[in-house]
Every structure is written in structure tokens, then in C-alpha cells.
Amino acid sequence: MAVLLDIYGEMLTKKQRNVMDQYYNYDLSLQEIAENIDISKQGVHDMIKRAEHSLLKADEKLRFFNRLSQIRYGLEEIKGILEDQKQLIQAQPCKQLDICREKLEELINTCLGG
User: Fold this and answer.
1) b/e map of 45-73 (b: 16 or more CB within 10 Å)?
2) Out of 18, 41, 77, 108, which could bridge 34 as a Cys pair, Cβ 3.0 to 4.6 Å?
3) What pLDDT does residue 91 have?
4) Domain boundaries, the chain
């Protein structure tokens, strides 16, 4: 849900984003969030459920999460191939393989907050 929040969070209201951020990214309890924003614990629960539903509906239509997952999986496979190749030519250090590995690592981290 935290990834969906990163992808589609701007589609939520500011208050919903704030509550979801506290709940999923900062792991606060419903009671802690309720105290932070001065509403009831049940109100926080209801807001989270509505926001979750909105995020899931957005992803159902747009499918960005699935696409990012596929990209990340492909990048992980390429990274593994590069690591295998690096081990094969360990006797002769290959700076370009290291550069490719570093760039892949950056892309993997970009996809889904790896």
C-alpha cells in the first residue's frame, strides 16, 4: 500500500495522504494518528479504508504498479547477468560492468523504492 501511495498519492485529499503517510510510512497506530489530527480513532480507520479503496481503484485502471514491478524484475535479471559476467572476468577488472551495475542499482531503487 505504501508503494501505491507513492504512485497515486496525489489523487487523494491532503488529509487522506497525511493519514496514509503516518499509517504506512511511519507505522503510527490509529490512536496516535487520531491524536495527531484531532479526529476519532474510528474516523482514522474509515479514512484509511476509503483511501486504500481509492488507491486500489486507481491502480486497477492505470496498472502502474504492475508495470513498475515488471521493470524492476527485468532490471534485477540484468543485474544478475552482469554479476555473473563480472565473476567470469574477475582476473581482468571491467570498469564498464561496474558502471552498468551502478546504473542498474539506481534504476532498481527508483522502481518501487527498492
Assistant:
1) eebbeebbebbeebbeeeeebeebeeebe
2) 41
3) 57
4) 2-62, 66-113
Please count the residues of the chain.
114
Residue in the structure block whose three cell numbers are 492505470: 62
Which residue in the block uniquely carries the three cell numbers 552482469? 82
Burial of 44 (0-12, 13-18, 19+ CB in 10 A): buried
- Which pLDDT tens digit goes with each residue over 35-65? 999 999 999 999 999 999 999 999 999 888 8
Look-up of cell digits 565473476: 87
* CATH classification code of 2-62: 1.10.10.10
User: CA-CA-CA-CA torsion for 14, 10, 21, 69, nearest 10 degrees?
Assistant: 170
pTM exceeds cut of 0.70: no
pLDDT tens for 7-30 read 999 999 999 999 999 999 999 999
| Encoded amino acid at 61, one letter | K
